[in-house]
Every structure is written in structure tokens, then in C-alpha cells.
Design goal:
single chain, 468 residues, alpha/beta, Four Helix Bundle (Hemerythrin (Met), subunit A), Rossmann fold, 434 Repressor (Amino-terminal Domain), 3 domains, eight-stranded mixed sheet, 21 helices, 59% helix
Length: 468
């Protein structure tokens, strides 16, 4: 998401960086491309107009700091405006008090509402150590009841359902059961339609009046772009929800909904769904999203994800091995598998500065990571711990075991050996060696180092000249 917008913004920053000072002319000339990129990202035209005006006013106004690089100044201004566009957000959930906290989810059919109910329940269960309960109140779609019950079994959360009953009856029954079993929060999965109609809105309004939800969240599909914003406006007019949950933010969304809803509807995005798995769900942070849009990565979110899958003892043990330069291929394979618990490697790398917006240019290929893991898995335990013992015959056996060429095994061993040398220098206090460590680790993980990248581009240019 946001790749085109990120590339356009970085091109704008490079142009400004070559100017001696910020003027209204060079700001407006550069922002013309940014305006087009925002519109192509399906951002609401009024939001685009306001955003461009705010950036222009601040960039050429009296607040510009003299003596500072123009590109750095404009990056700060754009970052602040993006953050203001999407925030602020209050992530607190009103848990506690007498009786269960009731959270009502609304949205159109196909927006991912039922799956989001399961994701939200799991998130609250793990983050707040509470005991959620789900209500299958989407009685118009029988499959929704089966789906929610299946999700409840996966995350060990009870689901209240009653086939043949109306939605309000199910909600009130679930509220009573939540009170009797001292479970909270109660999450209501309400019915949706392919489009907004009077019957659906009347049903939601009745549930809101009788079930008295503490908070109402609208589930909107990020892939819908401006359609999601339009439907959010109508939902807010009829039932006045509190926050938005954007689903499918990992898809081919251009980002228009994420950048428009807060400004147009006046309601913040509280959570986002970032994948199909139930744990692909996280709070929405406008400042971190602004960082990612500007190609700065999101290291804080990456650390939070890592803390969920990496035990503190394992992290300390790994740190000790790196410090003593005893890190081996067994450890390297374990780290690959640990990273993959956080999601696809491409998604993990997208949180890192520079890598996120340049993975295609760097030649990243997830299949190469698969090949590396396959090569290491074809080794014996002793070979993984002592790779220096691998000779020609062992390389042939390992290559045959994983279905690759012997040269691939040899390249992996050479790259890992070089990385070990760098680790040894770092452990002795040579911090300059860190600059050499990233390219070596990247080449093993399927990311072309700068020299290889230049050679690859040179080969492409030579090939084009030959064809001409």
C-alpha cells in the first residue's frame, strides 16, 4: 500500500533538496505531482485540496527554519500534515464498571465484519487479559453464524447464537449471558447488506437503543477506497459510530480510505486488519503510518510484533551468541522461522526504513529465503553448527537434498562466513564493521547487495542495447 505515493513524495523531496531555499514556485511545482499521486491513491478530492494548501502555507510561511536543509524541512511539514490528517486516535477500550462492556460492530456485507469480530476478541483477550464473548446477530446471512462459531472455537471464546431468532433477541440474550457469566466485553456482530437500506439501518438503530453499546465501530474495507468513505458518512448520519476499523489494509488498497475517513467523516481509525490470520490485527497509529508513507519504516511496530513471538530468554541467548561470535547456521535458520511467525518476510521488511519502499529495486524475492532455509535444513545438526566442516562431497549431498545447485550451497557458506567475520569484529568493539554486516545478511536473505544490484542493472542495460 502507498508505494506510488511514497515514490512520488520521495521524488518531491529530492527535487526540493536540490534547491537553495524554499519558494512558493518550487513548492507548488513539486506538489503538483504529489496532488496527482494522492488522487490516484483514491484520496477524497477535498482532503487532497486541503492537504496541499496546508503544506504549501507552512512550507513558504514564516515558520520555515533558516539554515536547515530544505528537504528536511519539507519532510517534517508533510509528516506532520499526514499525521494530523489521520489522527488523533484514542486507543482506550472502556472496560470495567458494572455489567459487561458492549461493543457493536456495523458495516456492509463483504467488509470483513464477522472476521473482524474474531480478531477484535482475540486482540482484547491477549492485550487486556479479559474474557470476551461474541453475539452472532447477523441473522440475515446464516453462514455468518457458522463462521462466527468457528472463529469462537479457534480463539476459545464463547459465541451466543439462536437460529430463527431476530437480531435484537440474540443481542439481548448475549447481554444477559455475559452478565451471568461475568464475561466482558460483549462484541455484537450485526447484519450487513450489499448496500445501505432502510431495513438494515432500522435494525441497527433498534439494537443501539436497546442493547446500549458502550462503543460502536464501523468496519470498512480499505480496498473500497472512496466507496468506504461514502458509506461511512451514511452510517455515521444514521447511527453515529465512535471509530472505524479498516479491514484488508494489507491488500492492493491504494490508501484512499485511510487518508480520507478521519477528515471527511470526523471519526478516527482505531484498528486495522493487516492479513487473513486472526492475529493480523493491530491498533492504528497515525504517526507510524505517516512514517511508512514517507518511506521511514515503522520500527516501533516491528519491535512490538517481535516481542509477541520472541521470548526474552531467547533474545538474550541470541545476543550472547552474537557477542561471542558463536552464531551458527542453526541459529540463523531459527531466526528465519521466528521472523516468519511475524508474517511474510516481505511484510516484516516493509517496517524497516529504506527497505520498505525499495524491496522491488533491491531484488527481494521470498523464494530465495525459502531456498536458503531449504539448504540449511538439508544439513545435519553438526554441519549447521560447524559449517567449516562442509567439503565438496557434503556440498553435493546437501544440494541434492534440497534440489539446488552445489554452487548455491557454496555461495551461502561464503556469505555466512563473511557475516561471521563481521560479527567477530563487532563483538570486539569495531562498530564500523556494522556497515558491512547489513549487505552480507541481506544477500543471504534474498536481498541483492549494492554491487550485485548495480551489476544487475548493467546487465539489463546491455541486454536492451543488444536488442536495439
Amino acid at each position: 500500500m502507498f508505494e506510488t505515493l511514497t515514490d512520488t513524495l520521495q521524488g518531491f523531496f529530492r527535487k526540493i533538496g536540490g534547491q537553495p531555499r524554499l519558494t512558493e514556485k518550487n513548492i507548488r511545482d513539486g506538489l503538483r505531482e504529489v496532488r496527482m499521486a494522492l488522487l490516484e491513491a483514491d484520496v477524497h478530492y477535498q482532503v487532497v485540496k486541503q492537504f496541499i494548501e496546508q503544506v504549501t502555507e507552512k512550507a513558504v510561511g514564516e515558520n520555515v527554519i533558516r539554515g536547515v536543509d530544505p528537504a528536511q524541512q519539507i519532510v517534517k511539514i508533510v509528516h506532520d500534515e499526514l499525521e494530523a490528517l489521520m489522527g488523533p486516535v484514542n486507543h482506550e477500550i472502556p472496560l470495567g464498571g458494572e455489567g459487561p462492556t458492549v461493543i457493536m460492530l456495523a458495516g456492509l456485507q463483504g467488509s470483513g465484519k464477522t472476521t473482524t469480530c474474531g480478531k477484535l476478541a482475540l486482540h482484547l483477550k491477549e492485550r487486556y487479559s479479559c474474557s470476551p464473548i461474541l453475539a452472532a446477530a447477523d441473522v440475515q446471512r446464516p453462514a455468518a453464524i457458522d463462521q462466527l462459531e468457528a472463529l469462537g472455537r479457534q480463539i476459545d471464546v464463547p459465541v451466543v447464537s439462536e437460529r430463527g431468532a431476530d437480531a435484537l433477541t440474540v443481542c439481548m440474550k448475549a447481554r444477559l449471558q455475559a452478565h451471568q457469566q461475568a464475561r466482558s466485553p460483549l462484541i455484537l456482530d450485526t447484519g450487513g447488506r450489499l448496500h445501505i437500506d432502510q431495513e438494515m439501518m432500522a435494525e441497527l438503530d433498534e439494537i443501539k437503543r436497546r442493547a446500549k453499546p458502550d462503543q460502536i465501530y464501523l468496519v470498512a474495507d480499505a480496498r473500497a477506497g472512496q466507496d468506504a468513505v461514502v458509506s461511512a458518512q451514511e452510517f455515521n448520519r444514521r447511527i453515529e459510530f465512535d471509530s472505524v476499523i479498516l479491514s484488508n489494509l494489507d491488500g492492493d488498497a491504494r490508501g484512499g480510505a485511510a487518508l480520507s475517513i478521519r477528515a471527511v467523516v470526523g471519526k478516527p481509525i482505531k484498528f486495522v486488519g493487516t492479513g487473513e490470520k486472526l492475529d493480523n490485527f493491530e491498533p492504528f497509529h497515525p504517526d507510524r503510518m505517516a512514517d511508512r508513507i514517507l518511506g521511514m519504516g515503522d520500527v516501533v511496530s516491528l519491535v512490538e510484533k517481535a516481542q509477541e513471538v520472541i521470548a526474552q530468554e531467547d533474545a538474550q541467548r541470541l545476543e550472547e551468541k552474537i557477542r561471542k561470535a558463536t552464531f551458527d547456521l542453526e541459529d540463523f535458520r531459527n531466526q528465519i522461522r521466528t521472523l516468519r511467525k511475524m508474517g511474510p518476510m516481505r511484510d516484516v521488511l516493509s517496517y524497516l526504513p529504506f527497505f520498505g519502499s525499495n524491496l522491488d529495486q533491491l531484488g527481494f524475492d521470498e523464494k530465495e529465503v525459502d531456498a536458503v532455509e531449504a539448504i540449511i535444513s538439508s544439513m545435519t545438526v553438526e554441519e549447521r553448527r560447524r559449517p567449516e566442516m562442509i567439503g565438496a562431497s557434503r556440498r553435493e549431498r546437501i544440494a541434492a537434498g534440497c534440489g539446488c545447485e552445489s554452487a548455491s550451497v557454496n555461495n551461502l557458506l561464503k556469505q555466512f562466513k563473511q557475516m561471521k567475520k563481521v560479527m567477530r569484529k563487532v563483538s570486539r568493539g569495531d562498530m564500523d564493521a556494522l556497515s558491512n554486516m547489513l549487505p552480507e545478511a541481506g544477500s543471504i536473505a534474498g536481498i541483492a547487495p549494492p554491487k550485485a544490484l548495480r551489476a544487475r542493472r548493467k546487465d539489463k542495460r546491455s541486454s536492451r542495447r543488444r536488442r536495439k
